[in-house]
Amino acid sequence: MFPMRRIPPPEWAPEWARRVAPTVEAEFGEEEYRAVFMHRAEILAAVQEAVEQYINDDDVTSNESRRSFPERRKLTGEYYIGEENYWVSTVKYHGDRPPTPQAQYLFSLMARCLEEPWLEGQTDLDYLSLSVLFEWDPAAQQVSSTCDVDSSRI
């Protein structure tokens, strides 16, 4: 297994990538954000698990140089939380069933995975972005992972 470790945002990361302050849409509300924040340790543990599962899934990440993206061998084993977004969707999706009109409190944390330097003097080591999606249930005061991880090259 290829282990991953969360680190603080690096000093070299641009301000927009270090987003210390999360983006909370007005519909989500500060009160709900504070309630979600009480589950911070649980959320970060779920992000850790999602990142490691993605990185260690041979169907999406490989150790071999196959000129595809992403390549596990390029990773340092470190990532940082580079962005947080909180919003309300007016439609709830149910897998294969049709969506229903219902407020759904959602949020995502973006894990920015670092690569080994490959250029002399390289300072930007961002390589792979993994956006981990969560749902917040205000009535139950519970966070649940949607098991949805979106990846992109950065």
Please describe the topology of this protein.
Blueprint: E1 5-6, H1 15-18, E2 23-24, H2 30-37, H3 40-55, E3 75-94, E4 97-115, E5 126-137, E6 142-153
Parallel strand pairs: 1-3, 2-3
Antiparallel strand pairs: 3-4, 4-5, 5-6
Series of H and E elements: EHEHHEEEE
Q: Class by helix and strand content?
A: alpha/beta
The first-to-last residue Cα distance is 24 Å
Beta-strand content bin: 35-45%
Q: Which residues form runs of ≥5 with pLDDT under 50? A: none
- What is the averaged pLDDT score? 88
Assign an overall shape.
globular
- Count of DSSP strands: 6
Largest sheet: 6 strands, mixed
Approximately how much helix is present in the residues? 10-25%
Count of DSSP H/I helices: 3
| Cα-based radius of gyration, to the nearest Å | 17 Å
Summary of the model, kept short:
With 154 residues, this protein is α/β, with parallel strands linked by helices.
Give an overview in words.
18% of the residues lie in helices and 44% in strands. The protein contains three helices and six strands. β5 (126-137) and β6 form a beta hairpin.
Which descriptors apply to this entry?
154 residues; alpha/beta; 6-stranded mixed beta sheet; 18% helix
